[in-house]
Amino acid sequence: MRTVTNYFIVNLAFSDVSMATFNTLFNFVYALHNDWYFGLGYCRFQNFFPITAMFSSIYSMAAIAVDRYMAIIHPLKPRLSSTSTRVVIALIWVVAVLLAFPQCYYSVTEFYHPRTVCLVNWPDDYGGTHQISYQLALILLIYLFPLLVMLVTYSLVGRSLWGGAIPGEPSDHYHHQITAKRKVVKMMVVVVTTFALCWLPYHIYFILGSFNKDIYKQHYIQQVYLAIFWLAMSSTMYNPIIYCCLNQRFRAGFRQAFSWCPFIRFSEEDKTELQHTNTFRVTMTRSYHGDSTRVHGPGTTGPGLPFSSQHTGPKAQQPKIKL
Question: Most Cβ neighbours (<10 Å): which of 36, 153, 195, 245?
């Protein structure tokens, strides 16, 4: 299971569950009552961590898109190893922390009788050059740029998967592999689209407010913001639902892991699905082991590798097939 894609999916899940745990409830209470109850320390954390988690989430999706692009469009080129993947994830978090630091540094709590507010006190006040520049940088770096990367890579992958056979792969011999690749690409496109739609109103709201403060004085703006905020925060809960709806092995594996629960039944069909997956992996691994030296040469990743296979460096002279 330790494929490049799965490493990034775990990082994506960690980012989502962290935001759901540490930010969603506190931010919703504050938005609902317009009174900050949680002190200066958590005010700083509250303004800092959502940007960090969001950056990690969307760049994990972008990394998955690039990895899928390399696996399908350029299968002969070297792939990320497990160690390199962990390094990339660490770098994503480092950059995320640096990007979110200004939000933490300038956060303050101020008392306006009878309530306390948590805000980011920019050097030139809210709506000044610093705040607008930072907001535009956030929109570019944690929304528009990664979405553009994913749009380009998935478009090229989609054209290759649905527009004809994979280069170097006889489509009749690798029909099941191509089908698996298509399913995973569909699933990730749905994940990315869901993320983009959930966060679009949130970014538009703050961009408009940066240029026109009068928006915040409208009669129903609090209700509008609560709806926008709820939609943005809800993005952290959709991915497991998407995986469950679009991935049969995920459903089977989930039921197996939670079969001890009273309302979850691990059926024979689920058992067959998981056994078929393992049998197919072993069969394809042995087949590749017998053919790789003759067809592709030692130590190379051949064009016939399935969707989530990976080249893991010098020790992986005969990479295993993983779907």
Answer: 195
